[in-house]
Amino acid sequence: SMEDTVESVSKLFEQRLHFFSRALEEARNELSSKDEEIQQLQAKVEAAEQQKAQAQKENKILTTEIEIRNLKITLVEKELKHLCIHKLNSKVLQDNGMLRACDNESCSKLKDNYSEIEKKVEQVNEKVQKIKKENAKLRQTNSELKDELLRANLEKDSITLQFKKFTGMDESMKRLTDEYNLLNTKLTGYQEQIADLTHTNVSLCKEIEVLKQSKSNCDVQVQTASSSQEESEETTLPAYKEFLRQKEEFANLKHDFEKHRLMLTEESKKHKERLIDCERLFEVEKSKQNKLFQENLELKHELHKAKKKESMAEQELIDLLKNENSKNIQFFQDYAVKLHPVLQKRSLSSNLKSISELENENFDLKMQLLNEQNNSQNVYKLC
Length: 383
Hints:
- The protein has four helices and no strands.
- It is mostly helical.
- It is rod-shaped and about 170 Å long.
- The two termini are about 90 Å apart.
- Keywords: Coiled coil.
């Protein structure tokens, strides 16, 4: 009958209304969860920036400590130079006292020999000064290479931190991409449901036309039977009005669902654009890191060459000093044989003692300098 048909149509519209209300509520919940995830990503980015600032502060502190260490090394080198000059002056004064104690002939011979020694010492000093200049240049080059290597390491640490941050963002973007694909799948399902509902709506419209035709037939019957008209109006008109109200509510719900679907599509598009931008930035930073890594390898190679050259120069200086010391010892031994036995004993013992002391002190000072350089290199490696 017409009442049963209207009641079934009303139930069908109630079911559809409940279904679309639940779908709209789920879509809103998903949108709110997306907003929360975006806020969490922003909080992670801010935390990474704070960690970057803290790392830069620590790097500045380490750079200051390295500069202080280098200043200490420079001070030790100056003290070593001053001590070597003082020892040489004391040796010259001691030799002059020994010359005054000798007779004129021995003194003249000793002066001649000493002048030759002084010439040799001047030649050695010139060679030493030349080697020191080369060492100073090598130290300056080494210092510049250390500074460049330190800057490269700092840039490498910064890029590594950014790489880790972008790696985390890449993982987040992958997760967002998966969620985007899931949303697209759900939207496809919603579109299929909308198509089914559209088909159902067409069927309902046809049924409504049939109901309208039935209503017109009922109106004709009502005109012929006035007694049954009041009963027909009491039963048919309220049900039809309820049907029209549910139809209008269904249209409004369909409009809201379409609006929400478009909004979700726009959000998914924005997430996809952000993912593309992050991938592009990641590739740029990766190329920068590879370039810096290559420059770092070149700097390490240059630093190794400079250290090798510096060690060779230091070894050459040590060998030269040992050679000159051995020559001086041999000269004083030969000359002591020609002098008076007392003078021979006194000069030989004093010269051997002074030369051995100077040689030992020179060796100790060089070992101390090498230890300081090793300590500075260890501090640099630790940094």
